[in-house]
Amino acid sequence: MIQAGQLRKHRSFAIRIVILLAGVAFIAYTEVLERFDFILYDKIATLQQYPQDPDVVIVAIDDESFKTLGRWPWSRGVHAELINRLKSIDNQAVALDLLFSEPQDSDPYADHLLAYAIAEHGNVILPVAPVFDADTQLLTLVQPLPLFTQQAVLGHVDVELDSDGVARRVFLSAGINAPAWPALGLALTNPAAARAIYQLQNPVAVPEQPEHWVRAQQALIPYAGEPGSFRRISYARVLFDDEALASLRNKTVIVGMTAAGMGTRFATPVSPLNHQLMTGVEWHANVFSMLATGRIIHPAPAVITAAIAVFWVSAILVIIAWTGKNLTIPLLLALMIAGLFLCGLILTLNRIWIPPGAALLGTLSLYPLWNWRRINEFLRTFWIDKTHSNAALESIGDGVIITDAFDHVIYINKGAETILRTQLNQIKGKLLAEILGLDTRNNGLSANPAGKDILDGGLHKPGMVECLLKTAQGTERTVRITRNQLFDDQKAMMGSVIAMTDITDRIELAQQVAHQQSHDALTKLPNRSRLLAQFDSLIQTIPDTGKNITVFFVTLDNFKKINDAMGHHAGDKLLKLVSSRLFDIVGAEVILARWGGDEFVLLFNRLAKEDSAPEMAQRILDTIRQRFEIDGFEVFVSVSIGVSFYPEDGLTGETVLERAGTAMYRVKKDGGNHFGFYSAESSVVWTRDQLELERELRAAIKNDELQVLFQPIVNAQSHHIARIEALVRWLHPKRGYLSPSEFLPLAEDIGQIEQLGEIVLKTSCAAAYNLLQLGYPVNVSVNVNPRQLLNKNFPQTIVQVLHDTGLPAKSLILEITESAIVNDMERVSKVLEEIKRLDILIALDDFGTGYSSLTLLRELPIDILKIDKSFVRTLDQNRNDLKIVQAIIGLGKNLGLTVIAEGVETERQVKLLLQHACYFHQGYYFSRPIPYEALYNLMQHKLLR
User: Is residue 280 within 8 Å of 80, Cβ to Cβ?
Assistant: First the structure.
């Protein structure tokens, strides 16, 4: 039974070999891979360097000649004069790539001059060419006038273009029904022999209705350099310049068109060298040079090519079977390179071209023939990986739709089914526009140019739009849609991937939150944040006008007494009544907002300091002093008012408001029930502490007093430190250790955050370089502030730091958060692409929170995902967190990203992460952030668990 099984295997293998060899022979004989062979020939042929033929000169009918001799066509007496001048220097042969098939009616005597000149010269070659008449379906031969043919040597100028439109070959003889005419270049090499061939012909014998054009003696042309390589002399110069004429002595001359827009031009294998087509006259010069120097290349016949291809593949099979070696990819590539080398060697030494396409394809086909079991295993593994990828797509909440090249839906994941309220089997094969239903609303996607591009697939780069989507059940959802096109290796579009995120609840919540964030819940007035935005807008409306903005900062005096005596509900009623009176005083044109507590702000843009501002302040004081009635009680209150002006008291709205508040507190301190204007003296008491902290932070940055600590990122499998993250701390002389959240916002406010970030970057890179020099190569991870990332000079800063510290770019990781991305996605993407080109890794920190999605990972060059510690902390307690972590790990793996878990604190967490293939951990379980010296000791003594 075993022998029978082995026999069947050998028989099956032999059958496959026979089929393979037959296929190779068929492909070689029928030239199926002709275009591929053309590409190989062009590459090999252009590697050959041929010296320029100094004996061939092109007399060019160029733009200079047109300026001298006038518009084309010229009198044939001009051409007669050219031939006579060439005769005067004993020119041996000249070819004119010009058809003189019609008499010159304007000057008949000129034809006789030209005929006489041709006869006197003795070796003038003129062209004949086949012409196919589409109306009569007849093939005719265009020849010079009989007056010329009696004296001239004739050669055909038929140029055969290959199937890809490139002129690689020449047929040395061709004719109607018989190859009777030599090529122009061949006639130029031996005019006497060409003349003899012509004299032997019987023109009468040419049939009246020729059947076809016959070619013979095929040869491949070894071009002597890129287009424009042959020496050229202007036609006009040869006519009028004796020195130019003398330079043609003992040269072979070819006359033809080179002027722009005149004559025929061809693509050749050497055209890509200077991106120019080759003129017909230069093509003939190459043919003549090839024949004169014996460089002719002979293409192997199809039968011989097929036999060589079969022999080559058979020889490889025999050698592999004899040696008993496996056919590996490197060996296969070596064999293919060897085949190409042999083809090039034969072409160089023997001037024979053997198309290697079929042999190379046969060699390539040996791999699946020999390694079919391994390929089956690979396909099985690929299927498993694809299953895992599908599982990752199904585990995320975002919707994913995949379409074909014609925008028909071919796949949707569970997230898309949930958003669309439908299933794949119900919409598969339908158009995307029909499924999304975005073109049914005037205010929907159809009115949005970017949305139209997403809907019709007209984008050449990723695009995103937010719009209303009508589901299959008729309900509407607000979604964010991103479309990316898929291209094959030939840049042909295969389809698209559309990612959808349902943001309906988020939008509704955002609208509610936005209203709550911009308005006070009690008084319905704009709140502090809304006021600041309105102030900035008001500033933009009055630039360079000389006007100012007046700020009134109003607070109730002794408001606490109302709350204490009557309760907080009475205090709330009083605040509403006060806001109503303030609105009645100033009207709708003035901005009125509640700053907080019992404080209100009014913005005027039409008040002058000397006149209207005091009057308005006094009017507010008098109005608020009037009695209020709350729950049947009469209540009397007063207010304190601080006044400041833009731009006199500051160049930003926040500064001017702060100084109005400073003036108000000064009034309140002096007893209240009055108003006062801001002055520099009134601000000293209230900003001294802030100024002191600012001064101390500036000094700490300047004197390099900030501390950079390092927390190891551990490979939990091998328990070695693979990376370190740099974390900055400030040891304040009075307040002790300050965390980044306590001083980084201040650094941003005073414009020191970029300088601080550069210090941390330089310190971190220097520490990593020191560890590298000591034999501990680790990647250092540095957090990047959003302001740094939005600075166009940030990549140059990184380059300078790497240069100064000596750290290799590949050892640096930059950590970014989503807050640094979502505000200006386009600008951040450009900066990250520039940083990525430096070979620096990009890590996305706190992944899993905020707005993380497939879209973000697809549009940015992210290398590393860091799972937020909020998921890892309860990993062993909450199944949902475990599922989220598992999904993130699977997503990162399928996208080819490194995944790092933050906040690892227990051995149980380590084991769970390892079980789900997350190998890089960071957290207190391994080490807290520590100084460089402690980090070095830790790495030196390997104290990790």
Answer: no
The verdict on 550 and 649 lying in the same domain is yes
d(CA 800, CA 786): 20
Number of domains in the chain: 5
Q: Mapping DSSP to helix (H, G, I), strand (E, B) and coil, where does residue 760 land?
A: helix
Q: Say if residue 307 is in the same domain as residue 232.
A: no
d(CA 814, CA 832): 10
State the CATH number of the domain containing residue 429.
Answer: 3.30.450.20
| pLDDT over threshold 60, residue 120 | yes
- Choosing from 475, 509, 543, the residue where a domain stops is 509
Which H/E stretch holds residue 39? helix 34-47
How distant, in Å, are the alpha carbons of 18, 464, 760 from that of 736? 84, 47, 20
Please report, for the domain that includes residue 722, its CATH number. Answer: 3.20.20.450
- Overall residue count recorded for the chain in this entry: 945
Distance of alpha carbon 621 from alpha carbon 854, whole angstroms? 58
Q: Which of 184, 206, 199 is nearest to 139 (CA)?
A: 206
H helices present in 631-673, as ranges: 653-669
Average pLDDT of the chain to the nearest whole number: 82
* Same domain, yes or no: 550 and 647: yes
- Look at residue 701 and tell me if it is in a domain: no
Consecutive H or E run containing 40: helix 34-47
Answer yes or no: is 556 within a domain: yes
Task: Find out whether 643 and 613 touch, Cβ atoms under 8 Å.
Answer: yes
Same domain, 610 and 645: yes
Position 383 in a domain: no
Q: Kindly give the pairing relationship between strand 736-738 and strand 779-783.
A: unpaired
High-pLDDT (> 90) share of the chain, % = 20
Residue 132, in any domain of the structure: yes
DSSP character for 876?
Answer: T
In this structure, are 133 and 265 located in the same domain?
A: yes
Nearest to 289 by CA among 237, 213, 231: 231
Whether residue 433 is found in the same domain as residue 566: no
Bridge-based pairing state of the strands 278-279 and 138-142: unpaired
* SS3 per-residue string spanning 815-868: EECHHHCHHHHHHHHHHHHHHHCCCCEEEEEEECECCCCHHHHHHCCCCEEEEC
Indicate whether 97 and 144 sit together in one domain: yes
pLDDT tens digit sequence for 194-243? 877 766 654 444 445 557 888 889 999 898 888 888 899 999 999 999 89
* Residue 556: CATH number of its domain: 3.30.70.270
| Helices H / strands E in the chain, number of each | 37, 35
The amino acid at residue 656 is V
Cα distance between residue 889 and residue 887, in whole Å = 5
Question: Domain limits at 490?
Answer: 395-509
Single out the residue of 251, 247, 277, 239 nearest to residue 188, CA to CA. Answer: 251
Q: Is the pLDDT of residue 623 over 50?
A: yes
Q: Choose among 891, 819, 790: nearest CA to 499.
A: 891
Which residues lie below 8 Å from residue 85, measured CB to CB, with a gap of 6+? 238, 239, 245
* Tokens (6 digits) for 849: 């929170």
Same domain, 669 and 635: yes
Give 410-428 pLDDT, tens digit per residue. 877 877 777 777 777 777 8
